[in-house]
Amino acid sequence: MSSVKELISHLQRNFKEDDVIAYSIFQVDDINQYNLHKDYFTQEEKKQIISNMHYGQDCNDGLSWSTMETFIDDMINERQNKEN
What we know:
By secondary structure, this protein is an all-alpha fold. Helices cover 61% and strands 0% of the residues. The protein has one domain.
């Protein structure tokens, strides 16, 4: 799982302070804002969704609300498969 600490370390190792970069950051609270069923996911599932977004993003779509929706749907499908 990617953390703020890991991001800071990565930035310090690979960039100069004056480098111009573009970035997107999502956190667990964003899932609560996006998902109509705030209590549907456990805290661990929300962390897993954010982690999946981080490691599963691609160069075309990157991180976006639609990317989050895809990974939320994946988690719902995973949970439903476990229940069946």
